[in-house]
Every structure is written in C-alpha cells, then in structure tokens.
Amino acid sequence: MSTYDNENNSGKKFAGYAIAGIAILAIGAAALYLVDVDQTKEARLPSVDVNVEEGQMPAFDVDVADVNVGSTEVSVPTPTMDVETKTVEVEVPVDVDAGVEDTKIKLPTIEVDKPREDDPANNPQ
After folding, report:
1. 3 state DSSP class of 125
2. I want to staple 41 with a disulfide (CB 3.0 to 4.6 A). Which of 2, 59, 61, 86 is the partner?
3. What confidence tens digit (pLDDT) does each residue in 55-109 have?
4. Residue 36's domain spans which residues?
5. Does any domain span residue 60?
6. Amino acid 1: pLDDT
7. SS3 of 23, please?
C-alpha cells in the first residue's frame, strides 16, 4: 500500500467522522424542537388549616418524535490516476492518465416523525 493510499483512506475516515458528527448535532438540535409537553393536571398545595389535606403533584403527558437513523449507499465519483514511467538514468513520470471512477460509500440517513400537537380540549384535568 502506498503513502497515497494511506492519505486517501485517512481523508475518507475524516470525512466519515465529520458527517457522523454533523448528523449527531442535527439530531440533538432537532430533539429540542420535536418534543410536545402538555400539562394534564395543575399543581395544588396542601391547605394549612387544622384539617390538612394532601397535596397533588402536576402530571404531564409527553409526546416525543420518532427518529430513525440509518445509512444509504451512494456512488461518488473519485479521481483515479495511471502513471507510466520511462527509465532514463532515473525514473521520471512521462505520461499521466487521470480519470474518474465511482466509489460506493455509506451516507447517514435520518427520518424524523414529529409528534402531533395535542388539542387542549382533549386533555383531562
């Protein structure tokens, strides 16, 4: 394996890590906007009389978005190069044939189903 192959593989790894990092940041940012929280009960403090009644904590109905993360394979044109050399005391590149070939890589996919917004008239008290 040549030095060029090692540099090319490390570039592909970096690009993969960068894409994965961006996808994780996008999921985190979307999570802040894709949650619907509805208060279903009001808080009530205990009354402070001679007769003490128990209090009540508020209840919440939380709907969270469905997020599906996967990957899809696509073809990406990547440069290829053939170099022919002639021997004249030292090897010197004489003819360079550069081209493009398709390389298959996996890209992350994200599917987000936002929760439906509740109708306040349907929330029990």
Report:
1. coil
2. 59
3. 888 888 888 888 888 888 888 888 887 778 776 576 656 677 777 888 888 888 8
4. 3-44+53-115
5. yes
6. 46
7. helix
Please report whether residue 125 resides in a domain.
Answer: no
Pick from 74, 75, 77, 76: nearest CA to 100: 77
Q: Tell me the pLDDT of the chain averaged across its residues.
A: 77
**Dihedral angle over CA of 66, 107, 20, 15, nearest 10:** -170
| CA 26 – CA 14 distance, rounded (Å) | 18
The region, left, alpha or beta by phi > 0 then psi within -120 to 50, assigned to residue 33 is alpha
What tokens were used for 105? Answer: 């890589």
Q: Which are the contacts of 63, defined by CB distance < 8 A and separation ≥ 6?
A: 35, 36, 38, 115, 116, 118
Least confident span in 9-13, 43-47, 55-59 = 9-13
